[in-house]
Write a structure and sequence with these properties.
Number of strands: 5
Number of domains: 2
Number of helices: 9
């Protein structure tokens, strides 16, 4: 692997550590959550005071862009996809890099059944003529039924690197599944472990390295450390 390819791989891994890239293609309807950075002029007045004091006043927010994927091209860090939607009777298209740091999430809303790699012909169609039938095949059902992770827990992410076997890369991928607290790992069921293992291709590392037992011991040690000395003596 040459230097350029290695740098591109590192950039892709940095993005994948924060969010996943679902399997999608032309004909699929997706919702792209784009991170928008507001200027200092649109920021809160309190933030403007901070800006005068030399601190940044930029404010970010998430903006949803939902439409149909009409093309996906490129490879590696340069891969991108084009999303088309009808807004107030006019066709609007946006091209998104797959590994852009400004994309917070890509969600597949509906999978379409098409036979072309590029759907540019939809630009000249309106109404029923622009419809794409939903894909109800075996593969589409499997992708729709795929396990997508846990519900987002309360509290800030914890340092899971204290568990032997969890690396920085694995911790980032666990965060994509909303699995980032010791109490979650300590209470994993057999089904949960199987889902995590299959999704992240851990090859049975959760059971072999006893992540559950390690998390339980770390929680017990943290609880013991919080007990006041007087209580401990009594």
């Amino acid at each position: 692997m040459n230097i350029i390819a290695q740098i591109e791989r590192e950039q892709m891994d940095a993005v994948l550590a924060k969010r996943g890239v679902p399997e999608f293609g032309p004909g699929d309807t997706v919702k792209v959550m784009v991170r928008v950075i507001e200027s200092a002029e649109k920021a809160d007045p309190k933030d403007k005071k901070k800006a005068k004091a030399g601190q940044p006043a930029a404010v970010s927010r998430l903006q949803a862009y939902e439409g149909m994927v009409i093309a996906r091209s490129g490879a590696g860090i340069n891969e991108n996809f084009t999303v088309r939607k009808i807004s107030y009777g006019e066709g609007v298209e946006r091209v998104f890099p797959v590994y852009s740091p400004y994309i917070a999430e890509i969600e597949v809303v509906r999978r379409g059944k098409v036979r072309r790699a590029k759907l540019y012909y939809l630009r000249g169609r309106r109404g029923k003529a622009a419809r794409i039938f939903e894909n109800t095949g075996v593969r589409a059902r499997r992708l729709n039924a795929a396990w997508k992770g846990f519900k987002k827990p309360k509290g800030e992410p914890e340092d899971l690197l204290q568990i032997t076997g969890i690396t920085a890369d694995i911790m980032g991928r666990l965060k994509q599944l909303n699995l980032y607290r010791f109490e979650q790992i300590a209470t994993l069921s057999d089904e949960d472990m199987a889902n995590v293992d299959e999704t992240l291709n851990l090859k049975g590392a959760i059971e072999k390295q006893d992540w559950v037992g390690q998390a339980q011991r770390l929680m017990a040690e943290a609880t013991a450390g919080e007990v006041p000395a007087e209580d401990a003596q009594s």
